Amino acid sequence: MKKHLTTLIIAFFLSLTVKATGQAGDIIIWNGDTLTLFSNPLESHPDWENLSVKLNTEIENQKCKSLFSTANWRGYVAEWTIIDDKIYLTNIYTCHDKPGKINLNKLFAKKGLIFADWVSAKLIVPKGECIEFGNLYYNSIFKTEITLEFKDGVLVESKTYNNYIARKSKFWLNAYSTSYLNFIYTQINWDKLPDLKDKYIYVSVGIQPNQDGQIDSLLTNYTNGTEFGPDTSVIITDRNNICMKEAIRMAELIPDWDVIYQRGLIVSRSLMITFDESMKKKYAR
């Protein structure tokens, strides 16, 4: 039975790294189900800095042919098990090509189960269909999400949310489509921009849509830019910067936005624009 369970977990690990949307999550075993975890509780350990050094040494000792994958840059997948409403670290799997396991008692210099009493947070468990793919970290949205709230390693509350798309934008079909690129880049006032030779400027505008798909507000923390030059880069936060103003103007021209509810709230959107000489030559009228 133990051998069968190990085989099952390793197969699950492989499915995470092969089929992952963004980064492969940890594993959590709860009420008899083996689920994906969109959180990494190990990295909230109070001595994570020293622990990570030991972990990396152990991972290197595994002599994997392939330690990492683009779906798992951290090089490990931790397995957690909830027993009597307490969360325990029960395994750490390594190696992308052929998963191995870390000796937890050696890693933590203690015997027995590793009670994760340092975990005081809401952990996210996605389930069901992916309704919006996100290619970074854990920003994909699934039809069902469960939040597991822990206090000092003890489960104090669990909630289940049904996420859904309330309204699809008639315009925002594909940010890389020809029609979208033409709409955005042909309306930029390129002549008002600074000289773009040997540099490019990347601006991201954060949008909070309302239930009708219109802009409710601009998100200050997610509206910024970076100017990349031959030898340096400069962060742009000034709303009066001409490229920032132009990107915001473009966002306001978009007729409507997707309205997606996640955990009861409308998900924010973003518009990303690159200002450089090649885009100017291609789209300037």
Q: Can you count the helices? A: 6
Number of domains: 2
* Average residue pLDDT: 85
Rounded to an integer, what's the Rg over CA atoms? 23 Å
Report strand %.
Answer: 35-45%
Specify the biggest β-sheet.
6 strands, mixed
- Structural class, please? alpha+beta
Reading the helices and strands in chain order gives HEEHEEEHEEEEEHEEEHEEEH
Q: Percent range for helical residues?
A: 10-25%
The low-confidence parts are 1-21
Number of DSSP strand runs: 16
End-to-end C-alpha gap: 69 Å
So what's the overall shape?
globular
Walk me through what this model shows:
Strands 1, 2, 3, 4, 5 and 6 form a six-stranded mixed beta sheet that branches. The protein has two domains: 161 residues, no CATH class; 118 residues, no CATH class. The protein contains six helices and 16 strands.
List keywords for this structure.
single chain, 285 residues, alpha+beta, 2 domains, six-stranded mixed β-sheet, 16 strands
